[in-house]
Design goal:
Length: about 425
């Protein structure tokens, strides 16, 4: 019997022949077109999108106001380089960012193309502002794959054979209470980790040498672990005490995903600098560093940015995205989606022993799979089986975590209730099937 090759399979065959193997394959779905929270694959099948382009389409695939803004700008000019010829969309977007993400009494912003670029520039700004070199980061962090960003990134798989890495980077354990609480109360655990932070000034790196501490308030690739409130407050106090710049990386958690423009606004802990990308442009490559004006202005002329800083088309897309998010109140919608997810899977957790943890911050939700109920025994194989099982049922999912044992949900926030419920149904049915629960 001859099995007909599908268009999706043919596309992957072409990919294998033409695309470098190092480019990741997180899911075997294909796309012919996409709208809202639905992707139509090359074979005409509709897929529910719970990956959102890795958190890039919070406002949905092809939101009409954003597409219209892109078309309009494309008819005017495509590129001048903001360094050479100043244009209004760049300035207007920076004004909007300073308004929705205020850092103290006076805020400034700069634009680049990717989250990794934003991180690289934030580190440079912090170093110039403090005249120091060292940077402190955390385990399970993901900050990108350019040289400084990759050094800051914790996951080894992204770094094999890529060294030598950037110097003067130091690392502490992320305060992961679920995995490392070891029977302590949350308060006692936070006290322990804050002591570890203080001790690091004696046995790791002198605080007077630190330019910056960089942290994802809710880790993305690391597994959607949220920093405890009091630890972030302690980190802010430590930075204030020693003149260190606190950089909060909101690339995956920003732009309505957690129920606000940035998760630090939910915490009420203000950074000196913060980084954004992903859903900022509804799929177009744009990113930003936002910070206190006096810190941002410490960078010397020409030391930050690049040729493609703030493409006018990407600026237009981002401005339209922000306006659209405000009009339909995506921040409130994120919290509604998060509640729906948590209610469903907290119940399932009681039934399925392989579910070690269910967590969420707004609509940044995750399920962690472990063996024997032990947080230190991740079950990546089971997680992979669930992702593949959901794919067969028309649900696009991706995993997360250093051990790839965590399913993360980053559906577009414009997803309809019936679509979201159907996706949750598929997840639950597949989990019950593969765990024999």
């Amino acid at each position: 019997m001859i099995t007909e090759v599908t268009k999706s399979q043919e596309l992957f065959k072409r990919r294998k022949n033409a695309v470098a193997n190092g480019v990741g394959v997180f899911n075997t779905a294909t796309a012919r077109d996409a709208k809202g929270a639905i992707i139509t694959n090359e074979d005409g099948e509709e897929l529910i999108d719970f990956a959102g382009g890795i958190g890039v389409v919070n406002a949905g695939h092809c939101p009409e106001p954003v597409v219209a803004a892109i078309r309009e700008q494309a008819g005017k000019y495509l590129h001048t380089s903001f360094n050479v010829v100043t244009y209004e969309p760049y300035i207007e977007l920076c004004e909007q960012l300073c308004e929705i993400l205020p850092h103290g009494e006076s805020t400034k912003a700069m634009l680049v193309s990717t989250g990794a670029e934003a991180v690289e520039n934030a580190i440079k700004i912090a170093r110039m502002a403090t005249k120091r070199q060292a940077v402190l980061c955390f385990t399970d962090a993901y900050h990108g794959r350019t040289m400084m960003a990759m050094t800051l990134t914790s996951k080894i798989n992204y770094k094999i054979d890529c060294g030598p890495f950037a110097p003067e980077v130091y690392r502490l354990p992320f305060p992961n209470f679920y995995r490392y609480g070891n029977g302590l109360s949350l308060d006692d655990y936070i006290d322990q980790e804050l002591r570890r932070l203080d001790d690091s000034g004696h046995n790791l790196i002198a605080p007077g040498s630190l330019a910056a501490i960089i942290l994802e308030p809710i880790q993305g690739e690391g597994g959607f672990y949220a920093v405890p409130q009091r630890y972030l407050e302690g980190l802010r106090a430590y930075c204030d005490q020693h003149g260190i710049m606190l950089i909060l990386d909101e690339v995956q958690s920003g732009f309505a995903r957690t129920g606000n423009w940035a998760s630090w606004q939910e915490y009420g802990v203000q950074p000196d600098l913060s980084t954004y990308a992903k859903s900022m442009g509804s799929g177009l490559p744009i990113a930003a560093v936002v910070g206190r004006a006096e810190v941002m202005d410490a960078a010397g002329p020409g030391t930050i940015g690049g040729t493609y800083i703030g493409s006018p088309i990407c600026c237009a897309a981002s401005l339209a995205t922000i306006k659209y998010m405000k009009e339909i109140d995506l921040n409130t919608r994120a919290k509604e989606i998060g509640r729906m997810f948590m209610e469903r899977f907290e119940k399932l957790q009681k039934q399925v022993s392989a579910i070690g943890d269910v967590r969420g911050f707004g609509a940044m939700n995750a399920i962690e799979f472990v063996k024997n109920g032990d947080p230190t025994q991740p079950d990546g194989d089971l997680c992979d089986e669930i992702v593949k099982g959901c794919a067969e049922r028309g649900l696009v999912l991706i995993s997360a975590g250093t051990n790839k044992n965590i399913i993360r949900v980053l559906s577009p926030l414009v997803i309809k209730d019936e679509q979201f419920t159907k996706g949750l149904d598929i997840m639950e049915e597949v989990i019950l099937k593969v765990t024999n629960s």
